[in-house]
Amino acid sequence: MKKLFFIPTLISITILLSIVLLNRCNPDDYILYQSSDFTVFPNRIEQGEHVAIAYSNSAINSNYPGLNKTEWKLKTNLNKYPKYESNQVLLNAIYQLSLEEIEKNIAPDTTFNTGEKWKGVWTRDISYSVILALAITNPEISKKSLLKKVKQGKIVQDTGTGGSWPVSSDRMIWSAAAWELYKSTGDMDWLKKVYFIIKNSTEDDLNVVWDYQKYLFKGESSFLDWREQSYPKWMEPIDIYNSYNLGTQAVHYQSLQVLIKMGKILGKDVQKYQDISEALKNSLNEKLWLPEKKYFGQYLYGRKNQLLSDKSETLGEALMVLWDITNEERQKEIISNTPVTKFGTPCFYPQIPNIPAYHNQAIWPFVQAYWNWASSKTSNVESVQWGIANMLRSSALFLTNKENLLIKNGDFNGTEINSDRQLWSVAGSLSTFYRILIGMNYTADYLEFKPFIPREYKGKQTIKDLRYQKSILDIEIYGFGNKINYYSLDGKYYQRPIVPKEMEGKHKIEIRMNNQLPTKSELNMVDNIVSPETTSLRFAKNQLLWDKKENADFYRIYRNGELLLKTEDNYMSEVHIDEPTEFQIQIDDGLGNLSFYSEPLYVYDTNYERYIETEEFDSNAKTSYVELSKKKNREFYFNIRIPNEGKYYIDFLYANGNGPVNTNNKCANRSFWVNNSYAGSLVFPQRGEGDWNNYGYSNSFLIDLTNRNNFFKISFEEFNKNMNQEVNTVRIDKIRIIRIR
């Protein structure tokens, strides 16, 4: 009797899985049913027999109140897609369900909708989806979808915190998707077109979000763009712009690599981008690695002195592995040590208190898919087994590929918003087959096979009518393991398991695995926890004071980014300030769990500070502020004479009422010049729809000033265009300078 596939990880965590019913061995007859009767039927998979597969110790309907579907049966003609078949009935059914959902996501204009509830193309969603699977299944629709996110020759950053770019800057994931499409199709016209789009967008980013001192890119977490869902509450959009996120660094690095590879094919000079990408890689590995945890920190954040969040960030960790941004030893450590929970990989860990579930307290299947792919790259058997099990579980249990799931029980019911057939979840499901079980790895010159097949999925797998550039491939894979024992192309044995890009026509491939897997692999399975609540600081009468929190074992006090002391008290006395000093506090619960750092408290004598009214430098001003727009004050000049030369912080009190804090695309952006030298980009995020009385500070610059006249210019350059491209307006009320020494 042939055994059904029992996944040890699934059994140990008693995951609920829906029944799979096979009426006949015709692939079109796979039906997924939901049921509260969870008997396991280990029957043979033969023609005419009914087979049910389930893992449970309780009834589904009581555990998953969000369950709203009872049956799925294929109703779509999938003949144009690669045909997958194995002796694992659940794999076959989930593959077809996911392909059908791809078809349902194709809009009337033949671009991809983002999900059942999310109409239209979104830059990051389509890009991550193309990389996972859509470059294989739907290359032409993917090209059209990507081009829909191009405006005036540059990549569009969708709406985001504070009015989109440059607060959010992960639009460059588009580059990796465009490159994946070139590798799968070999389309040189496509390569030539997208190269200049990527180059134009990169040049803007190098002027606006690249930090030439830290060698890192500024901007919001890639995809985690709902501000309070992944950042402390005190962080305003300008603070998020000034942060350096792990996943966003990985995206920019890969985008630079794509630009370099494309440029070399087209005969372009790419030395500049090579230098920047190398500097980024070194800085990222130096500044964001957590040696005691053996994975990367979530982001650097703060104001005058930035500190590293010790939370893991799963998508960023996976991308560091997949794109070889860190060395092989660290890649293995990341997969073995990053915290995961029984129902999947959380977006980050630990969770944030008092924030509802969406990115916080949630698992996103597309993130799980990237994690599984990275796990297979490091040959971590336990992580791959567990990861695939979780992907199959959620697709089968809910009979669709949901947008996100709760960490606590794996249900979709209870998150802030959710959608069926979420595009990148569907692509993530298909990546299980293409990227892991079949092991398809595209390069500029060939398609390579690197299957990773856990023992539970052993047997025969076939994929037919797979299109690779000008060839059509039928592939058969036998056995299990992480290495290929035998590879033949059209009956001829080859040492390297590749298909050259020059090959045309129909071909047959046979792969036999080594039937062996590495004996040692680790998975850091943890209980879901919430980090301690963030507290706040105040300064009065030479004392630092803060609110006590129930779960605080002790408090860590930081002075100018350095740990000053640990205390159980909620005050620190005799604090004497000789020069401007920044303090932050962090709660430690005594169990190794830390809160976010508090909002920085910058303490200084008011004699160090000076305010200057902007209207003093505008002879036409009839208001208490100066308005900068694309037409008005395109260049704004002012000068400051100071009594003492030295280092100063300078920033601007501004209002931007062109949109809300959490969305839209009208973040104002200008270039800042100090004594004829370019200092960087001034960013003025939106602060409230129509609220021009809501003032806050821009990003600040640390500059050297002399005791003579210092000349400044705020200008609108071509690279300062925001994503709206029409409205780029800000009101500046005051100039603030603070001497630090």
Care to describe what's here?
By secondary structure, the chain is an alpha+beta fold. It has 16 helices and 42 strands. Helix 6 (173-185) crosses helix 10 (246-265), helix 12 packs parallel to helix 14 and helix 14 runs parallel beside helix 16. The longest helix has 21 residues, at 188-208. It is globular and about 85 Å long. The chain starts with 7 loop residues before the first helix and ends with a strand. The model is unreliable at 1-28 and 34-62 (pLDDT under 50).
Entry summary:
With 741 residues, the protein is of the alpha+beta class. Helix content is 26%, strand content 25%. Strand 12 (299-302) and strand 13 form a beta hairpin.
**Strand element count:** 42
Structural class: alpha+beta
Helix content: 25-40%
Distance between the termini: 81 Å
The whole-number mean of residue pLDDT values reads 91
Number of separate helices? 16
Topology record:
Blueprint: H1 8-12, E1 19-22, E2 30-33, H2 60-63, E3 71-73, E4 83-86, H3 89-104, H4 123-137, H5 139-147, E5 150-151, E6 154-155, H6 173-185, H7 188-208, E7 210-211, E8 216-217, H8 227-230, H9 237-241, E9 244-245, H10 246-265, H11 271-287, E10 289-290, E11 295-296, E12 299-302, E13 306-308, E14 312-313, H12 314-322, H13 328-337, E15 348-349, E16 362-363, H14 365-377, H15 381-398, E17 405-406, H16 423-437, E18 440-442, E19 446-449, E20 460-468, E21 471-478, E22 484-489, E23 492-493, E24 498-500, E25 505-513, E26 537-540, E27 543-546, E28 554-559, E29 562-567, E30 571-572, E31 581-588, E32 601-603, E33 609-613, E34 626-628, E35 635-641, E36 646-655, E37 668-674, E38 677-684, E39 696-697, E40 701-705, E41 709-715, E42 730-739
Parallel strand pairs: 21-25
Antiparallel strand pairs: 1-2, 2-3, 4-20, 5-6, 7-8, 9-12, 10-11, 12-13, 14-15, 16-17, 18-19, 19-24, 20-21, 22-23, 22-25, 26-27, 27-30, 28-29, 28-31, 31-32, 33-42, 34-42, 35-41, 36-39, 36-40, 36-42, 37-38, 37-41
Helix pairs in contact: 3-16, 4-5, 4-6, 4-16, 5-6, 6-7, 6-10, 7-10, 10-11, 10-12, 12-13, 12-14, 14-15, 14-16
